[in-house]
Amino acid sequence: MDSPPGGFNFTESEMSFTPNIQAFCCHYTSQQSLAEGAESLKADGMPENVTLNRLVCGGKLKEITLLKAFEEGADAVFFVGCPVDACHNKKGSERAAKRVLAVQKSLQELGLGAERAEMFHCARGFHLEFVEAAQLMHKRISALGPAFDGGSK
After folding, report:
1. Distances (CA, A) of 74 to 70, 133, 146
2. Computed from CA positions of residues 130, 97, 48, 142, in that sequence, does the dihedral angle turn out positive or negative?
3. Which among 41, 47, 70, 127 is least surrounded, fewest beta carbons within 10 Å?
4. Any idea what the CATH number is for the domain that residue 118 is in?
5. Domains in the chain: how many in total?
6. What is the pLDDT of residues 7-46, one digit of tens each?
């Protein structure tokens, strides 16, 4: 059998892989985006396989929350918080960034790859950057494949 154009050979399970991506969002960064509703977000290009989890503040994000998402079947996690210099709660985004970095280090040590966790900054209100962050993670993780053998739970 000849290889498809581009030289990629995918198994049936890889072709049908839909990553489980958990997005954690600061209330202030996500409130307008979430107010748009699921249909509006979908129309703006939000991947359907991204689950949004809103937090009161990025400062409340804990490493264990992100790691627990993997334990529960996530293939990737990301956090969208306020810009560091415009954080509603002063240091929330700064704290979240440090915690995401710690999770990236843990994922690398576990052999899953640091790229399965990411931090993004978006200003308050609805911004396409919010949707673009989800699209980037979807594309990245679709290319990487499942976090664990056998796919996501």
Report:
1. 4, 17, 9
2. positive
3. 127
4. 3.40.50
5. 1
6. 444 444 445 799 999 999 888 776 555 666 677 788 889 9
147 located within any domain: no
Of 52, 59, 48, the closest CA to residue 81 belongs to: 59
Backbone φ and ψ of 20, nearest 5°: -95, 110
15: in domain:
no
106's CB contacts (< 8 A; 6+ apart) are: 63, 67
Whether 8 maps to a domain, the answer reads: no
Domain that holds residue 69: 22-140
pTM: 0.82
The two structure tokens encoding residue 54: 């809103």
d(CA 149, CA 73): 11
Q: Does residue 4 belong to any structural domain of this protein? A: no
Reported as a single tens digit per residue, the pLDDT across 84-139 is: 787 777 788 889 999 999 999 999 999 999 999 999 988 877 668 888 999 999 99
